[in-house]
Amino acid sequence: xxxxxxxxxxxxxxxxxxxxNALQAAHYYMTAFGFQPLAYxxxxxxxKESQSFVLRQGKITLVLTSALTEGTEIGAxxxxxxxxxxxxxxxxxxxxxxxxxxxxxxxxxxxxxxASEDENGWVITSGIHVYGDVTHIFVERSNFNGVFxxxxxxxxxxxxxxPIGLEYIDHMVGNVGWNEMNQWARFYEEVMGxxxxxxxxxxxxxxxxxxxxxxxxxxxxxxxxxxxxxPAEGRRKSQIEEYLDFHGGPGVQHIAxxxxxVIETVTQLRARGVEFLTVPPAYYDExxxxxxxxxxxxxxxxxxxVLVDRDxxxxxxxxxxxxxxxxxxxxxxxxxxxxxxSFGKGNFKALFESIERExxxxxxx
Length: 365
Ligand code: FE2
What we know:
single chain, alpha+beta, 2,3-Dihydroxybiphenyl 1,2-Dioxygenase, domain 1, 2 domains, nine-stranded mixed sheet, eight-stranded mixed sheet, 35% strand, binds fe (ii) ion
């Protein structure tokens, strides 16, 4: 049953955050996360209402955008949500076809097909709304050889921080409202041609206090993976519910970025001031009984707080940052896969208890 995909996607093109201060956010992601400066757009390039800094590390392109005036969509986003992910842009061969296929299957259009060009060629984009205020922008860039998109100029500040080995986006997780997970899983299936590869119910993901449910949706070539979470009933407030309260509705919960040396990457991140969730030391006492042989020294993992999980195909190492903005909303996951294609189910309990300790400190458990 090999059906031709109606929405072939080559990979993630970029992730754009709307933030209060793009200049300072860019500095943070360069200094702390090792992103490299790539491109810039603002008053100096003829933009009147917004300013964007584009950063890159490995295949990850991060765009940080702020409003320059009042009354913008960007300002309204930040007022409502705080800093967060607005656009998850997908790299396609035909942006007009991507819009036609998805809107034809029920997606709501965010941006009609638009061609933009400069001396480096032309790019065609289009876009659809997904959960909350998040969009998918389809980017067709085969006729462009500039640094990012038409209208951006190369950004070459004197300051650079060393990269820390981040390679690509492994997955991006969306939090949606009560009883909305199935609706959004269906959206990715029917409107975008994704398949559900894993599902977790509240028995998999619950602690004494909180619970959530999750379905992982993947596109045909597996390069795009979007787990979708919804809160489930527990004795106390679910971490997903806390997110929804502070974010002001559904949105992107975390961006998982891959490295091929989690120990080096996390050592660098910690040295540069990035803070992570911690697990009790007892987690490491039983680690090898649970996951079997691993190449890494347990002591090194314990010192850094890196978690390990195994599935039929191998194992993975992962760690989660604390939220990277004032509201307890968006955070990052650093993941190294050694064969495992799963998402760390064996760590959920230890991890959620860690999140609950943070929730308790915030008074939102
Ligand atoms: Fe994750």
